């Protein structure tokens, strides 16, 4: 009898399906990344990071999968000379220098999705730093100023000019209105 009471108390404590556990507030905070960062920079959080700081974040959190300096790793290449991406380009070769039209998307994506196995572990400062490092490695910024909510949206991405026009509409991104 005592055992049955104890068991039903356990079942109640674990909820209807008896699997999983409640998320802590900290876990909810890590996953609840809103709002998205837009191309204009709207939604970028406070904080900042330099290329040097980013080199450390990169070595510790990214190099194992993306290679020592952004290429040559087991997964996607992040650094490349700006060569035009075509239909034949292997998606693993879509790098920041030739494929990403907005620097702010890079922030949003890395904050949300990387490191691949443990997304959400980077602080906003660390995300700014690793974005600065990757932009520097791609030859897009000179590293003289830290990346933050003011400087990052100002970065001009070479991929914006490289992306081909939509053949039917002759517009770059017919489905959205560019800022
Ligand atoms: C465990 C391996 C792993 C680690 C560690 C990792 N990544 Fe990734 N990364 C991936 C994989 C796999 C993809 C492709 C994901 C997809 O296509 O959905 C990817 C994709 C990316 C992309 C998009 C590439 C593109 O242009 O298509 C960026 C940018 C990126 N990672 C940055 C980072 C950064 C910055 C870090 C460190 C903070 C990091 N990654 C750590 C595995 C990893």
Unreliable stretches covering 5 or more consecutive residues: none
Span between termini:
68 Å
The number of strands is 2
CATH topology: Cytochrome Bc1 Complex, Chain D, domain 2
- Order of helix and strand elements from N to C terminus: HHEHHHHHEH
Overall mean pLDDT stands at 84
Rounded radius of gyration (Å): 21 Å
- The appropriate CATH architecture is Orthogonal Bundle
Q: Which ligands are bound?
A: heme C
Please count the helical segments. Answer: 8
Characterise the protein shown here:
With 179 residues, the protein is mainly α. The protein is built from eight helices and two strands, in the order H-H-E-H-H-H-H-H-E-H. The protein has a single domain (37-162), classed as Orthogonal Bundle (Cytochrome Bc1 Complex, Chain D, domain 2). It has helices at residues 2-14, 25-31, 51-61, 63-66, 96-99, 103-113, 124-137, 159-162, and strands spanning 48-49, 147-148. The chain has a two-stranded antiparallel ribbon with strand order 1-2. Helix 3 (51-61) packs across helix 7 and helix 6 crosses helix 7 (124-137). The protein starts with a helix and ends in a 17-residue tail after the last helix. Bound molecules: heme C. Heme C binds at residues 61-62, 64-66, 75-76, 78, 94, 99, 109-110, 114-117, 122, 130.
């Amino acid at each position: 009898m005592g055992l049955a009471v104890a068991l039903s108390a356990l079942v109640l404590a674990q909820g209807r399906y008896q699997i999983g556990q409640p998320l802590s507030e900290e876990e909810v905070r890590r996953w609840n990344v809103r709002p998205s960062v837009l191309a204009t920079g709207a939604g970028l959080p406070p904080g900042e990071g330099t290329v040097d700081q980013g080199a450390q974040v990169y070595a510790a959190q990214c190099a194992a999968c993306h290679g020592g300096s952004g290429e040559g790793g087991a997964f996607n290449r992040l650094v490349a000379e700006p060569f035009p991406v075509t239909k034949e380009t292997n998606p693993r070769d879509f790098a920041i220098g030739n494929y990403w039209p907005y620097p702010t998307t890079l922030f949003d994506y890395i904050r949300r999705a990387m490191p691949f196995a443990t997304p959400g572990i980077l602080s906003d400062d660390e995300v700014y730093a690793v974005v600065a490092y990757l932009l520097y490695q791609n030859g897009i910024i000179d590293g003289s100023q830290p990346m933050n909510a003011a400087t990052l949206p100002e970065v001009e991405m070479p991929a914006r000019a490289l992306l081909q026009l939509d053949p039917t509409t002759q517009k770059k991104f017919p489905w959205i209105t560019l800022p």
